[in-house]
Amino acid sequence: xxxxxxxxxxxxxxxxxxxxxxxxxxxxxxxxxxxxxxxxxxxxxxxxxxxxxxxxxxxxxxxxxxxxxxxxxxxxxxxxxxxxxxxxxxxxxxxxxxxxxxxxxxxxxxxxxxxxxxxxxxxxxxxxxxxxxxxxxxxxxxxxxxxxxxxxxxxxxxxxxxxxxxxxxxxxxxxxxxxxxxxxxxxxxxxxxxxxxxxxxxxxxxxxxxxxxxxxxxxxxxxxxxxxxxxxxxxxxxxxxxxxxxxxxxxxxxxxxxxxxxxxxxxxxxxxxxxxxxxxxxxxxxxxxxxxxxxxxxxxxxxxxxxxxxxxxxxxxxxxxxxxxxxxxxxxxxxxxxxxxxxxxxxxxxxxxxxxxxxxxxxxxxxxxxxxxxxxxxxxxxxxxxxxxxxxxxxxxxxxxxxxxxxxxxxxxxxxxxxxxxxxxxxxxxxxxxxxxxxxxxxxxxxxx
Amino acid sequence: xxxxxxxxxxxxxxxxxxxxxxxxxxxxxxxxxxxxxxxxxxxxxxxxxxxxxxxxxxxxxxxxxxxxxxxxxxxxxxxxxxxxxxxxxxxxxxxxxxxxxxxxxxxx
Lengths: 449, 108
Fold this sequence. Notes:
The complex is a heterodimer. By secondary structure, chain A is α+β, with helices and mostly antiparallel strands. Chain A is 30% helix and 27% strand. Chain A has two domains: 4-299 and 429-448, no CATH class; 316-410, no CATH class.
């Protein structure tokens, strides 16, 4: 019976893995190595700025252990969501790293580069046609929202990757990508069941996070067969168990039975998990249901302004009890003094509700001290610095009722007390768009280095 | 009626973003018997989530019992998009304690 082996070295390219686990992976003769290199979890800044959230040297370390070996053994390496967010700047950043490795190891891989950036004119046309719909809770989309967004990417499915693999390449370097696609593309190209291939991808994209003990920094192997797939660990420290795999199926999703993706959805209603060895699990029954209209998820970010923060602490019980009313006065006075459009002043109060804000059920402060982060956002860095600095000095010397500590109200751990932290972005687009051709929409370039 | 804290019944209680605009909670129970009892008694309901997190019913998007993992998943709307102005938890990973501390009517 035929099978195909898919190696996933790490949960996110740059998170690392033990070399021994990777060696075990290579010993299993994988047919393909998939690397999910990104996520939207770290927030909108990285897509907005075209910057990675994983250190460059960490990404280089991982790739240097994988690429030269895979190249020599003719195992294709497929990278998705390069650079963390998968916009053009991220893809180019990752390409530079690959070029450095190729030069050092004197190899000349053929690379397919698949960009995921979406053209604004195309999106505005789609919007007019009513072919863009919001995902749950996403903000309203208009032509202006599209124009004001700085980076807009679509999550590619397996289709453009399969097309690239047809060209006999060594590395696929993909922009924003549906996480499972880098693992599912080759099996689907070779005629394996798409439901099994995508479900396998869903699990191994997080590498050993789905094993127990879980880890985002260890390699795993997925073996797809005609009617099932098998998950294997590559370190004797871990096991895949029915519980660990089933639990992972819940992770970061809204509905664990129906998982939508590019071109359709994964149906897990009849999925069976079976423990076949003490450390391996076999999965069967997962189905892929093709949608009538092929849709892609699009993500976009827009610049809000610039941020400045100041970190300080309060130990005074008299002040602590009045913290809400004191900060309300500080905010009002600061905003009155600097009423610029788009100016924002907020306080993160650790020891009160700094973590959960509106969702915090415990209203009473029970800690003996409070940690406060003063946060200012304005149209320029200079304006944000001004807003934060004014609020900080007002708080430091504010004469609140019954005050006895008349020398100063705040403890600062740092000098300077304020830090300019740069641009602030928000997610402006989180929608699905109907497309006619799920391959052509992703600009693809073939190069040899 | 005997009350029992959720942490005594579950081995995993976690929160995380599901995309930038949703927050999702997973409760994975210790045993299938516990899971079945929770499911039969419909303990995890919209009213339960509303009470714990002080959110309106409209904001509760989905409550789903997931057999293979002996788990319940609750998904609510984030009050703002991840990382937008006023954010306190970009990844949404530290919103689970009200569930951990919830007291459940557990019978005799």
